[in-house]
Design goal:
Rhopdopsin 7-helix transmembrane proteins, two-stranded antiparallel sheet, two-stranded antiparallel ribbon, 326 residues
């Protein structure tokens, strides 16, 4: 027997109010509980990554600094973005037009930073695998710090550009009161936030994969050097190959979570972001922030050891930052 949803107004005292469709109580509570758990889980896991890399001196490497930047963006997703995904249950926006625009504006910055961090991570692995002899000279902690800073600054200015009309006049694209809709130029966002960065990630990782496979064969054959095209003959360390595989999983999961949203955007030059329609697609993007630290837990022994030291409060001991976690 089909359950009919009761139609009500978001603001009964306003004639211009949007209509809302109530959900069964059990369904609503289930979604609320699931969203709350995933949000809390995302915040805690990424906080553990942030504390681990920040505290332990051994983890202050260029690659881990990129992971730290990614963990910060993932942490902000769990803290600021996921709680507002209650639109999956409640289609009415009760916080006003300005908060609506600011929510999507901040979300856009965080998502942009995640994409940019993935590009930096792919470039880092490309240099580490394809040019290992010069990696320590080309990729230094200082250069990575500057790159991460520029990455976040770029995302802020890019988001201001994309949301300028919405920030100038919040609520201008709403059709009724209680709706949260923003408009961005989909063609620009598709090129700048998806096609260009994703193409760069795929090209870099295809190159990394080819070199990694060749180096793995060379190691099994007890060959000390392999020549690839006209490059310098070197042998990549097993640790670098393992890191490339792990980060390859991170990149693959990232692509699977981000592709649905941009595939939908291909059908329109302008993207009208409305919570009642696109909330699930946006949530899939946000869920990627929960998956990243889970991948670290499976593939990085240093993360598991760091978490144990954090949970047991051993990091509070003097000189704990010098503990061997590798």
């Amino acid at each position: 027997m089909e359950i009919l949803q009761e139609t009500k107004l978001c603001f009964p005292h306003l004639n211009t109010s949007c209509k809302k469709h109530t959900h069964p109580h059990f369904e609503a509570m289930l979604i609320y509980t699931l969203l709350s758990f995933i949000s809390l889980f995302t915040v805690l896991l990424n906080l553990l990554v942030i504390i681990s890399i920040s505290h332990f001196r051994q983890l202050h490497t260029p690659t881990n600094l990129l992971l730290l930047s990614l963990a910060v963006s993932d942490f902000l997703v769990g803290l600021l973005a996921m709680p507002f995904q209650i639109h999956l249950v409640e289609p009415c926006w009760m916080l006003g037009d300005l908060v609506c625009v600011l929510y999507y504006f901040i979300l856009f910055i965080i998502v942009c930073a995640s994409v940019a961090n993935m590009v930096l991570i792919s470039a880092d692995r490309y240099v580490a695998i394809c040019d290992p002899l010069h990696y320590s000279n080309k990729v230094t902690v200082r250069r990575v710090q500057v790159s991460v800073l520029l990455c976040w600054v770029y995302c802020v200015f890019y988001s201001v550009f994309m949301f300028y009309d919405n920030l100038k006049q919040p609520g201008r694209y709403n059709s009724c009161y209680g709706e949260c809709v923003v408009n961005i130029v989909g063609a620009v966002d598709l090129v700048m936030s998806f096609i260009i960065p994703i193409s760069a990630i795929i090209i870099l990782y295809v190159r990394v994969f080819v070199v990694a496979v060749s180096q793995a064969r060379a190691m099994r054959s007890h060959i000390t050097a392999v020549t690839l095209q006209s490059s310098v003959t070197v042998t990549v360390k097993k640790s670098e190959l393992k890191a490339a595989r792990t980060l390859g999983v991170v990149v693959a999961v990232f692509l699977m979570c981000y592709c649905p949203y941009y595939c939908v955007s291909l059908s329109s030059s302008d993207i009208m972001i409305q919570s009642s329609i696109n909330a699930f697609i946006v949530f899939v993007i946000l869920f990627n922030s929960c998956l990243n630290p889970v991948i670290y837990a499976f593939f990085y022994p240093w993360f598991r050891k760091s978490v144990k030291l954090i949970v047991t409060l051993e990091i509070l001991h003097p000189n704990s930052c010098g503990i061997n976690v590798l």
